[in-house]
Write a structure and sequence with these properties.
It is a single chain. By secondary structure, this protein is an alpha/beta fold. The chain has 2 domains: about 325 residues, Purple Acid Phosphatase, chain A, domain 2 (4-Layer Sandwich), CATH 3.60.21; about 230 residues, 3-Layer(aba) Sandwich (Rossmann fold), CATH 3.40.50. It has 17 helices and 22 strands. A hairpin with a 7-residue loop joins β10 and β11. The longest helix is centred in the first third of the chain and has 17 residues. The termini are far apart.
């Protein structure tokens, strides 16, 4: 770069929430804009100071939804004022302010009114299909703000905005992830019109041939939970389409969380989530992506995270400032390369070291990949999910006074995904079938075991029971019949085996239950103990009839060996004991 030539930067912010808002449940949402008089000015002044100090030129601003709180016209007038402040301060064109709607940019009243009125007339139409009505106020604002025939909001399309920069060979695409959102509580989830997306992207790539692409939308693509309002429900299909067109740098908001994750099987691609810009909370933030290198084929941007720092003051005073955060966790760079950046990584050989993850494609249901490669095992898929979703945690986790580890697996989040559950169940089915044993009874140990195991009894046409506690003795009438000990082959299913103490305690306490059993097949998702894993691991320590198997033994948990008096975590009362 020339000495006086500025590097470019672009902003990603989300969830402006321009005004105070009361939800239907009575919960009050406060906005920084209404609470603090000069919130807009503080933002542009602090940003301007940073850009000048670092010789940077602001190229554009990407806003991934929730500009308003209830999608009323007066809210969008305030949004327009804020956006004009940015535009004027940094000499941007109106089309350099790029926006896509969030769920709060849907007017539920207009949506519900249209649905009720048409239902009276006998018109059968799904609640979410009233796209023009639910987006009426957002569209009016959008179209009037740009006042440009090339920037007209169409709520039925997947792409809500497209802007290409010829000098950078860089194109930003905003997607509408609220396609199936409506006033009805069952429709509160993210969904992109995948039928339209593929054809739209084909036209965009044809128009912007040779460009590098970044997409942004509202909902979180990295969290998959059924009936969850943060989820992009059809992310598997959307990922497949984006992958097909080599577009996998993704900016999003909605969850009000600063986070970033690599797309683990591709070089330099990632997800970048950002906290709320305007809702009054401690994580108000925005990302500034600063050019490090760019040419026709490649680009590299450094991600800088800025947070709003509050100061003690009276209400309606200037009460804070924006500050760049140091030591950003996770992914701090955005890389794009038309030549090598989209090349899949070669799958690594499995390592004997702990917490090592094979590089492979993320699990997506109903997806076929064109690459001719080895089909991934369920173990590989599970390990990929652990890595991509950061589910292996550090820090003390206490089951009891004597059972403490310094590492743990977030099982709750792991089992919160229907897709992950299917991987686990498929592997357990395969393990049981390979044992060539007729199964008489399946037992889920603990809540996690119950979630995993209950459908398997249907597969193997066996009885099923659930034991929430190893020491439980208060059985119902059906279980009392089971405890008579008439079952020869019993499967026990749990989530994690560390030293086997819980399972040992269970078997010892249920002698009547197991008295006539010939085989006790113990299945766990994880074995995390230090000993070398093998199928007969527990034969000498618990019961000669026990056959043990797990999906993976690659994750090892470090045990806290200090007693209570010497453990600083316990002494400082920083521990949390899970009493079952």
């Amino acid at each position: 770069m020339g000495k006086n030539k500025k590097n470019i930067a672009f902003i990603h912010l989300s969830d402006i929430h321009i005004s105070d808002f009361t939800e239907r449940n009575g919960n009050k949402i406060l906005s920084r804009f209404s609470q603090y008089r000069n919130y807009s000015n503080v933002f542009v002044e602090n940003l301007d100071k940073f850009l000048k100090k670092n010789n940077l030129e602001l190229k554009c601003v990407n806003i991934s939804g929730d500009l308003a709180n209830s999608s009323e016209p007066e809210e969008y007038e305030k949004v327009k004022e804020f956006l004009n402040t940015i535009k004027e301060k940094f000499s941007l064109d109106t089309t350099d302010i790029l926006m896509t709607p969030g769920n709060h940019d849907i007017n539920w009243y207009l949506n519900e009114h249209a649905y009720r009125e048409n239902s009276k007339k006998g018109i059968e139409k799904k609640m979410f299909e009233y796209h023009n009505e639910k987006f009426e106020n957002f569209k009016t604002f959008y179209d009037s703000f740009y006042n440009n025939k090339s920037f007209v909001f169409n709520p039925e399309l997947a792409c809500s905005i497209i802007k290409g920069y010829q000098d950078l060979k860089l194109c930003f695409i905003g997607l509408n992830s609220n396609y199936k959102e409506s006033f009805d509580g069952n429709d509160h989830y993210g969904y992109i019109n995948e039928i339209s997306l593929d054809s739209e992207l084909q036209e965009i790539i044809k128009k912007y041939a040779g460009y590098k692409f970044i997409v942004f939308f509202h909902h979180n693509p990295t969290t998959q939970r059924e009936k969850d309002s943060i989820t992009l429900k059809n992310w598997g299909d959307i990922y497949t389409i984006l992958e097909k067109h080599k577009i996998l740098n993704i900016l999003y908001g909605h969850t009000h969380a600063n986070e970033s994750k690599k797309i683990i099987n591709y070089v330099g691609f990632g997800y970048f989530g950002i906290g709320s810009f305007g809702k009054k909370e401690k994580s108000n933030s925005f990302n500034l992506f600063v050019q490090e290198f760019i040419n026709d084929n490649q680009a590299k941007f450094k991600r800088l995270l800025f947070k709003f720092m509050e100061e003690d003051s009276y209400l309606y005073q200037d009460t804070g400032y924006w500050e760049k955060q140091e030591n950003i966790k996770d992914l701090d760079e955005l890389n794009i390369s038309l030549e090598t950046g989209f090349k899949p990584l070669v799958k690594e050989e499995k390592s004997s070291q702990n917490i090592m993850f094979p590089l492979s494609k993320p699990f997506i249901s109903n997806t076929s990949f064109e690459e001719d490669e080895e089909e991934l095992s369920n173990e590989d898929l599970l390990l990929d999910i652990l890595k991509s979703d950061n589910l292996v945690k550090s820090g003390h986790f206490h089951w009891s006074q004597n059972r403490k580890t310094r590492t743990w697996i977030d099982i709750n989040l792991l089992l919160g995904s229907k897709k992950t559950l299917q991987i686990i169940r498929n592997e357990f089915i395969s393990i049981i079938k390979n044992l060539s044993t007729n199964i008489d009874l399946i037992v889920g140990l603990g809540i996690e075991g119950n979630v995993i195991a209950s459908p398997l009894s249907v597969v193997f046409n066996s009885y099923y029971s659930y034991f929430p506690l190893p020491t439980r003795t208060d059985h119902n009438e059906f279980e009392k019949e089971l405890i008579k000990g008439e079952f020869k082959n019993i499967v026990l299913i749990t989530d994690v085996i560390f030293e086997g103490n819980t399972v040992k305690e269970f078997i010892e306490n249920q002698t009547e239950f197991f008295k006539d059993s010939e085989k006790i097949i113990l299945l766990s998702i994880f074995y995390t103990g230090k000993e070398e894993y093998n199928l007969s691991l527990f034969e000498s320590t618990i019961d000669k009839r026990v056959i043990f198997n797990c999906i993976t033994d690659k994750i090892k948990l470090e045990k806290c060996t200090l007693d209570i008096a010497r453990c600083e975590v316990c002494q400082s009362k920083l521990d949390f004991i899970y009493n079952f």
